[in-house]
Design goal:
249 residues, Rossmann fold, 2 domains, 5-stranded mixed sheet, 8 helices, 23% strand, elongated, binds NADP nicotinamide-adenine-dinucleotide phosphate
């Protein structure tokens, strides 16, 4: 496929470096600041020859980028985090414009398997009523949002599955309430991304963890999504796409 990269930071570069190996070709790079960008903004000229746009920019710019790309009727894969509170609005836009959009706070296939494992555990633990739960994540010191979108997704999964948990807290300053799920993050060095879910009872602790070894883990998921884009209708999360694919096997 012919790709336009929107945002040319760490993820944009990783996708460019791996595109050929996966039989794709990067034909334009849109980034207002990068010296290596072919264009400074999204326009008919910058993306018209591509089959799909891959969006890894910033939480501040992602929504306006999605809007501009949808107006130009290009399909989209969105990896930028920090905008999922606007999912309904974006879904409407996708329906109005007839494009396809695959999104994820984390494109790592292993992380999406981890989401399914955590959902299954939370569902089982919910029957027992004896486990408390919390989430922590560790990322490199350049990451702009905290906690990570992936940690928030884990929180949403647990809130869906455990009836005693109905609120996520990320800025706890005092005692936690039993209905709350505490999510914390720390920033350190060059760590690609670690997420853990702690399930704690009076007699034991279950620790579920996922650790990314390098940034290619996210790019591989993006290429997996691209290979299935022709089967997608409208807007779908990568998690649903992966589950639909794996359960069909
Ligand atoms: N879904 C996943 O699997 C996954 C994996 C890794 C990261 N992420 C997320 O993806 C996003 C990008 O990550 P990253 O590590 O590549 O970050 P990054 O290295 O900071 O790259 C973001 C790039 O986008 C540029 N940019 C700023 N405004 C823009 C605009 N309006 N249009 C296009 N580009 C713009 C930034 O320029 P400046 O630096 O000059 O502002 C930077 O070059 C973050 O939200 C991150 O959390 C998602």
């Amino acid at each position: 496929m012919k790709l336009s990269l929107i945002g040319f930071g760490k993820m944009g570069r990783t996708i460019k470096n791996l595109a050929e190996k996966y039989n794709h070709k990067v034909i334009s790079i849109v980034d207002p600041y990068s010296k290596e960008a072919t264009h400074r903004e999204i326009s008919n000229e910058s993306i018209q020859d591509s089959d799909v746009c891959i969006e890894f920019s910033t939480p501040e710019s992602v929504i306006s980028n999605i809007e501009a790309i949808a107006r130009l009727k290009k399909d989209l894969v969105v990896g930028t985090t920090g905008w999922h509170n606007e999912l309904n609005r974006v879904k409407e836009l996708v329906e109005q414009t007839g494009i396809k959009l695959i999104y994820a706070s984390n494109f790592a296939i292993g992380v999406n398997l981890f989401f399914m494992i955590v959902r299954y555990c939370a569902r089982l633990v919910n029957q027992l009523n004896s486990y408390d739960v919390s989430i922590f994540e560790v990322h490199h010191s350049q990451k702009k949002d905290i906690p990570s979108g992936t940690a928030i997704t884990l929180g949403d999964i647990i809130r869906d599955e455990m009836k005693q948990k109905d609120e996520i807290v990320t800025n706890l300053t005092g005692k936690i309430d039993p209905n709350q799920i505490h999510i914390t993050g720390i920033r350190c060095g060059n760590i690609f991304g670690e997420h853990s879910v702690i399930l704690d009872s009076n007699v034991d602790t279950i620790l579920l963890s996922h650790r990314a070894k390098n940034r290619e883990i996210f790019a591989e998921g993006v290429f997996f999504a691209l290979d299935r884009l022709n089967k997608v209708k409208g807007m779908i999360s990568f998690q649903d796409l992966l589950r639909d694919t794996l359960l069909k096997v």
